[in-house]
């Protein structure tokens, strides 16, 4: 599992670069033909990881219910986010992954509620959720790369 956590951290470093290298205006821009913006995609990866790994394991998440409501599957950009919100999203890039690794290694994950994802694969245990989450984050990295080209 260490490899899966390394992939997650590397992807989050790529996401961090988008925050560091784009203006607030660019992070908030929804180009024609897209439903969401760069910052929505980044926040969505944070929320999804928490839902797939913690919520489905019956454990408390580190993200707020309001953040889940704004960035869960099926949502779209509804408003511009402030710099303070961008800073909060940036602050959540790494700590949830590090906590997941720690919790996994100490045996915190005991149960898992099966969940069928949009690719029709069914997640049956936390190890599968962690692996699928990396795939999911790769999809959103691709969206972000396309969004960047459209700015």
The CATH H-level homologous superfamily: dinb family like domain
Q: What's the architecture, going by CATH?
A: Up-down Bundle
Name of the CATH class: Mainly Alpha
Q: How do the strands of the widest beta sheet line up side by side?
A: 1-2
Count of DSSP H/I helices: 7
Number of separate structural domains? 1
The count of DSSP E runs of length 2 or more, i.e. the number of strands, is 2
Mean pLDDT: 97
The end-to-end distance, rounded to whole angstroms, is: 37 Å
Bulk shape:
globular
Order of helices and strands: HHHHHHEEH
CATH fold category name: Four Helix Bundle (Hemerythrin (Met), subunit A)
Task: Walk me through the structure.
- The structure is a single chain.
- By secondary structure, the chain is an all-alpha fold.
- The chain has helices at residues 2-21, 24-28, 38-54, 65-71, 83-91, 95-105, 126-150; strands at residues 115-116, 122-123.
- The protein has a single domain, classed as Up-down Bundle (Four Helix Bundle (Hemerythrin (Met), subunit A)), CATH 1.20.120.450.
- It contains seven helices and two strands; from the N terminus they run H-H-H-H-H-H-E-E-H.
- Strands 1-2 form a two-stranded antiparallel sheet.
- It is globular, with a radius of gyration of 15 Å.
């Amino acid at each position: 599992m260490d490899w899966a956590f390394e992939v997650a951290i590397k992807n989050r470093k790529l996401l961090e670069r988008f925050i560091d290298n784009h203006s607030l205006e660019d992070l908030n821009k929804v180009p024609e033909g897209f439903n969401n913006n760069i910052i929505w995609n980044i926040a969505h990866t944070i929320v999804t990881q928490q839902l797939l790994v913690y919520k489905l394991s019956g454990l408390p998440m580190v993200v707020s219910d309001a953040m889940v409501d704004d960035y869960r599957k099926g949502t779209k950009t509804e408003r511009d986010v402030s710099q303070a919100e961008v800073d909060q999203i940036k602050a959540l890039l790494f700590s949830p992954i590090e906590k997941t690794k720690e919790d996994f290694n100490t045996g915190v994950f005991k149960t898992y509620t099966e969940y069928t994802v949009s690719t029709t694969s069914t997640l049956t245990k936390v190890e599968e959720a962690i692996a699928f989450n990396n795939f999911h984050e790769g999809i959103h990295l691709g969206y972000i790369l396309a969004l960047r080209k459209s700015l």
